[in-house]
Amino acid sequence: MPSLLSNRLAKRVLRPAFTLVEQRLERATTALQSDLDALHHEVADLRRQSYGLGLLLDHAGRDGHRMPTATQLDTLVREVTTVTGASDAHARSELTVAYRTVVALEALGIGSMPGSTSDVCGKLATVPLLAPPNGDVLEIGTGHGLFASGLLRMLHRAGVEPRLTAVGPLTAADPLTGPVREDAVRVNLALCGGRSAAEARIAAPRNAVSDRRYGVVVIAGDPSVDAVLADLEWSAELAADGAAVIVDGHADDTRPGVNEALGKHLATGSRLRLLGQVAGTAVLRAA
């Protein structure tokens, strides 16, 4: 049976329909091509923006990248609210400011802040929310001083004028910047503003810093069991009532001595009480 489409009469009858279909296909193809062209331009723009953003936030010169996901931030908000009792909105606001602070300081400072973005931002946001009883900050393990600079800045925002005491020798080294020098630490501390840089006690001997009780203690030194135990015992002596005590590396599998030492110390009936964990950091309060 001959095809209907080969019949001349059928062709004349169906020609208007064919023309209409062809016109609609042409319009659809034109619209699709326009959408594809627009998508191509958007992808090209995103690639250019991503490259510039990567220069600012990728892992070069630091432990890891500074590009948190929404899920990571949501997790941090839950952890911070659990430890501090702050509202979700307040915790999210402080974490956002902490993140901006990290990006700004690492862009301007010497060296970097050790640790993941979640860990660093979690610590910076948690301490002010715990409302430490005074502005004296004891840091055990200073590195380049960028984290201290960020912490002092966050305390300034909370209405506390901080005074930093950093103990121990400046022995850490960065593969990009070399050995840590006191002048570099003070340059980084100057980024936080105020009198903190000029008045900070850097590389102070331990026997010279027991002249006060500290509202904030950060333990980020030697991660061996014996060293962390000694730091915890010393911190328990020097912490003011209600002080916030931060133990770095609590949940870090590469530093198992930190978790072991903390467990041993808390089992002795210490005046330090474990409030919880934010990212890889243990957060304690002095009774």
Summary, kept brief:
The protein is of the alpha/beta class and 287 residues long. The chain has helices spanning 8-57, 70-84, 88-108, 117-129, 146-157, 182-190, 196-199, 225-238, 256-266; strands spanning 136-140, 163-167, 173-174, 178-179, 201-204, 214-219, 239-247, 272-278, 281-286. It has a seven-stranded mixed β-sheet with strand order 5-2-1-6-7-9-8, sandwiched between helices. It has a two-stranded antiparallel sheet with strand order 3-4.
Question: What would you say this structure looks like, in words?
Answer:
With 287 residues, this protein is α/β, with parallel strands linked by helices. The chain is built from nine helices and nine strands. The strands form two sheets. It has a seven-stranded mixed β-sheet with strand order 5-2-1-6-7-9-8, sandwiched between helices. The protein is elongated, with a radius of gyration of 29 Å. The mean pLDDT is 88.
What is the overall pLDDT average?
88
| Helix run count | 9
Query: What gap, in angstroms, lies between the N and C termini?
Result: 98 Å
- By DSSP, the count of extended strands is 9
Largest sheet: 7 strands, mixed
Gyration radius over CA: 29 Å
Task: Give the oligomeric state.
Answer: single chain
> Which descriptor suits the 3D outline?
elongated
Residue fraction in strands: 15-25%
Task: Indicate the structural class.
Answer: alpha/beta
Strand order of the largest sheet: 5-2-1-6-7-9-8
Amount of helix? 40-55%
List the secondary-structure elements in sequence, H or E: HHHHEHEEEHHEEHEHEE
Q: What low-confidence regions span 5 or more consecutive residues with pLDDT below 50?
A: none
